[in-house]
Amino acid sequence: MKGALLVAGTTSDAGKSVLTAGLCRWLHRRGVAVAPFKAQNMSNNSAVTPDGAEIGRAQAMQAAAAGLEPEAAMNPVLLKPGSDRSSQVVLLGEPVADVTARSYRDLKPKLMSTVLDSLADLRSRYDVVVCEGAGSPAEINLRADDIANMGLARAADLPVVVVGDIDRGGVLAAMFGTLAVLDPADQALIAGFVVNKFRGDPSLLAPGLDRLRELTGRPTYGVLPWLPNLWLDAEDSLTLDAAGPAPGTTAAAGADVLRVAAVRLPRISNLTDLDALAAEPGVVVRFVTAPEELGDADLVVLPGTRATVTDLAWLRECGLADAVVARAAAGRPVLGVCGGYQMLARTITDDVESRAGAVAGLGLLPADVVFEPRKTVGRTAGEEYGQPVRGYEIHHGRVRFDAGTRPFLDGCRAGAVWGTTWHGALESDAFRRAFLAEVAAAAGRDFRPVGEVSFAAVREARLDVLGDLVADHLDAAALDALIGGGAPRGLPVLRTVLGPEVQ
Fold first, then answer.
1. For labelling, which of 118, 289, 340, 503 has a CA lying 20 to 30 Å from the CA of 268?
2. Distance, CA of 237 to CA of 230 (rounded, Å)
3. In this structure, are residues 397 and 359 in contact, taking their beta carbons and an 8 Å threshold?
4. Contact 419/341 with Cβ under 8 angstroms?
5. Would you please indicate which residues are annotated as catalytic (active-site) residues?
6. Are the CB atoms for 31 and 1 separated by under 8 Å?
7. Stretch (H or E) spanning 56
8. What are the structural domains of the chain?
9. What are the C-alpha distances in Å from 95 to residues 55, 65, 101, 396?
10. Is this model's pTM higher than 0.85 or not?
11. What is the pLDDT of residues 349-376, one digit of tens each?
């Protein structure tokens, strides 16, 4: 089999990342050399490739589904929002500019050649490339300079499958409308649809899908059932509200459950750091936004953020800063990761991201932070509690702590307050269990990790679930034909009321 496919969506969070990963795992298990691709990703959840490039976390997850190490070509353009109006542009793994929405539009034509070169490179090395769109192709206000959806599909002659989330309601109208607003040349590449997150009896949906085919001339390739708590590496914070316990977890040793409260910062990044804690038996993780929600927490986590100084100001405004300081003063455990670690310092001098200059931190660690123009990006390895630890770093802020301060990974600790720049460290199983044992002791909980969970195995099992979804609920033969043969020719063009340019 040789070919490619673009997975588009009726909306953000419709299921594009999940379906792309599922297709990659399904093809990989069949012995097909497959790679994922996303031309442009907007996300503060990122990963580091073996050679030190920064790409979207979802593409690293999809690479794992395909049995591959991630690489920069899989996500040539990554946008990391620092505010509602500006983002950092990461091109082939390296930051190159800070842009507004308008100035980015001026940059996009220059990025298209890099996008197409990256896709061509992957297609030369793999039998199949499964591409993921961004947002929705129905955003026709952005179509003229689009590099991720129909602009990419047209340039690379990719067949397109549109996935819609039926759990939100109105999915049939969204699928019809997505097709209807496109011009004829774009419509010609839309081959069909996939329904995501369906609950109930599929036979009740069948008449709607039959009518959709009558109206559009296009099939629905299958209906994916709603599955709670997949706990996949998230692309953005849209998935946080639906988070729950990881599937298959059991009770820990001891009588108590360990409760973890992770602060949901406005510009939270790399929230997947919490996944390994949530997968640990007997550990309950919840995201919080108010001080009263910290009441029964045994561990408070300040996660990473794309806007350390701005999110620290929010932490103070909502009262969480005072609550965290009071907890630390009482000897109750607090962990800061990357930006959250920087917040725990005495001072933060930032002339790079926020350009706020020197501001006061929470003062819970004997350390000071200075932001430097060059970003630190790389994979890390070390030892803590006598156990091996691996992780990765992505940050501008450099933390300098006082001589004689007790180290913790590359960071430091004071009493029951820990801080580190390492993302992903909690995925190291023995280290995670040792850390949780110390947290439980400091919190006075009768909690003892069971010493059985392999987070790597948990992640692989999740990816297998996605492969099973594709194998069990989609039309495999039709997808094979679509990937290998491209979009069917002669598909009908919808006549709409939008004007003669789309008739």
1. 118
2. 15
3. no
4. yes
5. 338, 423
6. no
7. strand 54-56
8. 3-38+109-231+459-502 (3.40.50.300), 250-452 (3.40.50.880)
9. 11, 26, 17, 11
10. yes
11. 999 989 999 999 999 999 999 999 999 9
